[in-house]
Structures
1.
Amino acid sequence: MAAGLPAPHLGIAGMKSFAASVFLMIASAAHAGENPMWPTSLNWTCAFSSVIRCERSVDCAMVAEEGELALDYRENRLTDEKGAVHPIKRHYAQTVAGSPIGSEVKIELDTNEVIWLSPADGAGVFSDNWIGAMLSPKTGVVQELRPLVCKPT
């Protein structure tokens, strides 16, 4: 008997401690497995070669504009093509029922910009390349859409 505690108290306290440890271990494992991009890398470079701009009048136009974004999950931030750092507000994996791609990743920035990414392999096998788009709401311009190709760095 440890510390002079009666056996029934030690048993309950021990079980509570064990249960809390198991819960933390399960929660940590679930959290670590939430993002299917993480096993490949925590740092990604996403390139775009065009931007689609849609004005309030519903007119949309595509312009050739190249740039790279640096996605850093370890520091929970994205660095845009101009070098500005934007904190990631939240990110999560979302499964799509009936989709040949097992899941997609959604990233929301503190600027209300949103990035959707899916593995490039349509067979549902997670590849090293992820494709998607970044949607950016702008003042005066309703939105900008950048098609992205992301690779681990």
Note: The longest strand covers residues 43-55.
2.
Amino acid sequence: MSITLTDQHKATLRTAAYGAVSLIAAADAAGKPHKAATEGSIALASATGQIGHVLAAKTKDIDLGGKSVAQLADQVLPALAASMSLLRQQDPAEADNFYRTVRVAVEAATRAHQGEPGPTVADMARKITEALDAS
């Protein structure tokens, strides 16, 4: 099944996915945030299906600004829930693809350093998963 996505839908999907990686990197500020961002972004760039095409597009429609992690989360967590809701309505298989893609990216970002992620990173990963499951 093919899905119909407006430019705004695509921007929301990209904001949600890349924003999730940014949240993990921000939560890992005392660790290796650049490595977390790199690993998570590589995972997103490896996405397949229509979601892979959306995430691979070279655009400037992702705005992950803000002066704090809280402001970033205020943008990203609702975008994750909105993305899942939209995709579930249009194509449950692509919704599952998006879910798995974001979860793999979050996992890749959290493994940027050796050992278990710290409590801050683990809590942020939990919040991201909750947002994905919220719809």
Note: The mean pLDDT is 92.
